[in-house]
Amino acid sequence: MRGSKLVNRIGNAFAALVGAALLAAPAAAEDGYDLWLRYAPLEGEAREILAGLSLHPDVPDELVSDPTIAVAVAELERGIGSLIGESRTTPQTRFDIDFDCRNEDVGGIPGAYRIARLSGGDGLALTAPDSGGCLYGTFALLRELSLGQDPRVVDLVSAPAMPLRMLNHWDNPDGHVERGYAGRSIFDWWHLPERLDERMIDYARANASIGINGVVVNNVNARAFMLEPRYIAKYKRLADAWRPFGIRLYVSARFSAPQDIGGLETSDPLDPAVRAWWKAKADEFYRAVPDFGGFLVKANSEGQPGPQDYDRTHADGANMLAEAVGNRGTIIWRAFVYSETDETDRAKQAYAEFVPLDGQFADNVIIQVKNGPLDFQPREPFHPMFGAMPNTKLMLETQITKEYLGFASHLAFLAPMWSEVLEAETGRGGTVAEVVAPAGIAGVANTGSDRNWSGSDFDQANWYALGRLAWDPSLSSERIAREWAVQTFTRNPQAVETIAKMMLDSREAVVRYMTPLGLAHLMATGHHYGPAPWVCDLDRPEWNPCYYHRADADGIGFDRTASGSNALSQYADSVAARWADPQTIDREYLLWFHHVDWNARMHSGQTLWEELVREYDRGISEVDAMAEAWNGLAAAVDPQRHRAVAENLAIQQGEARWWRNASIAYWRSLNGLPMPEGAAPPPETLEEYKARSFPEAPGQ
Ligand code: BDP
């Protein structure tokens, strides 16, 4: 039994709620801390039904002392109590929830569960092969109830599609979060291990509720001292707190640690003393944290040390660490590598370095590959490594925090972007989702100390979506948006409709006003906030937006076909054939793969220039439409969050225009073309756009 067989019942649930919900008054002011686990009181018929049942978790004796089951039971009680709300008005029928958590009938996949009507009695049987499955099943049941489902007819069977469903935190020990837009780090290293912030428990609950089972607690640009014993004590405290929630802790390791903190003269992975050092280090970790997940490593990338410093390969480096952890854990080795001395297209480098190593990695090594060949852009084609290493476990790395999509203030729901990649046919052994199924998915977290965790209410949806898609990549964005909106904001069906539409349109709007038609990496230097397509003179060529857009008087776009960098040749023939011809390529990848004349005719009959300007304008209208739609929801959403979202949308409206105008001003300085008919010229000069500076932009 692979993949979830959850049936989409949201439609029915909505239908049952119509009527009652329409009259519902908005909830009192809320600050977003409860995420999608608000369990807002039901109303109408759904409430009557739930209130009429007296639910009893029925836990067999041998599971009573199981900490994970205790968490599940506590959550069930909390959730149901909150969903019913104040007073019970209806006479109650006893309704058992029978915990059967050592049952292989559901299939042996850890975390799987089945919820079905109890045979021969009033109640539900929650069946799972392990306690984790019972915990995930509990959260699934609560989700169904939150959506208004009648508990008596809940009937679900589900299993995670992949074993590792992770968050990667880019949190530094001093509390700063690299590319973080939600305040400071949630990890209080300073006070650990003595003090454990209650937030660490709420964080674990939120993760468990969406199936996340692994957390890398520190930045991939790692500090070696985070491997020292005093940190191991801190990890132990966290790991002990998270274990009942099914979460294993992982740590980013700096490859040069043997020298940095170990007093060795080298970190050469083939040096016996280095190998012994890592082995002893791993043993130290496992003594404190027996289920320690393993190490995540960024090596020979953006100045980080790695095996190539000693003329060794990525496989030499990864395998040395894999041997140190042995069958106790996993080494996750990142494929995000590129070098300033490599003259070829940056988009080709990871494939060139890793694909020849296929088959050379130890069994407990996973190569973590970003969704696209560049770097978390609003849109990229899928990474050509997916499918190209059949003898190596690959996992997908995504970025939940929106470094290149407007930070926390722009609304961009990322499920459609991730599904686009997961569903992409690699042409070599299935879709990306199928390629990564034996390993997993990681998302670079967007959490921070902000009360609402994610820097904006809508960014919580991206955390939620990452977990849901890692559990089941076949879930539609629409379904994820709807279930999130109901749990997070309101059950008012029209409001849910509006919110889901805003979410589903949002990412494409960002693509249109920032990087339309396959453009990429036009963001300002360093912080990546706002447009700066004019930057051409940074030391490293591939740090310049000019390197990516290649615009001049005649045209724009990066020729990655055979007449250019031929990055296209890294894809399977069937895929390359689709993208090789500028006439037939999917329009959204046009300028990613082709350099096109400004005056070239597009299918629309317009020139490229006209179509580009039209895309910018469309992006702006879409943001305006989102803002307007949200204004109409003032009665359906609590005032505090309504205002917070409205303020963000106003920022987004302004910044979408900034992106459009600054970009157009720059393109016109190159092509000298008049504005297409009906399109307004940028209100400021190019010099004025260039002069804007934001040294205080967060996240750097
Ligand atoms: C880039 C970020 C940088 C990260 C790097 C990475 O700008 O902060 O360190 O990716 O993934 O997107 O290693």
From TrEMBL:
Region Disordered, residue ranges: 677-700
Entry keyword Hydrolase: yes
One Gene Ontology biological process: xylan catabolic process
Pfam family, one: Glyco_hydro_67C
Entry-linked InterPro entries: A-glucoronidase_C_sf, GH, Glyco_hydro_67_C, Glyco_hydro_67_cat, Hex-like_dom2
GO MF term set: alpha-glucuronidase activity; xylan alpha-1,2-glucuronosidase activity
Superkingdom of source: Bacteria
GO annotation, cellular component aspect: extracellular region
Keywords linked to the UniProt accession: Hydrolase, Signal
Boundaries of every Glycosyl hydrolase family 67 catalytic domain copy: 148-453
Annotated transmembrane regions: none
Glycosyl hydrolase family 67 C-terminal domain residues: 455-678
Extent of the signal sequence: 1-29
Gene3D superfamilies the UniProt entry points to: Alpha-glucuronidase, C-terminal domain, Glycosidases
SUPFAM superfamilies in the cross-refs: (Trans)glycosidases, beta-N-acetylhexosaminidase-like domain
The name this protein goes by in its record: Alpha-glucuronidase
Organism of this sequence: Qipengyuania atrilutea
Highest classification ranks of the organism: Bacteria, Pseudomonadati, Pseudomonadota, Alphaproteobacteria, Sphingomonadales
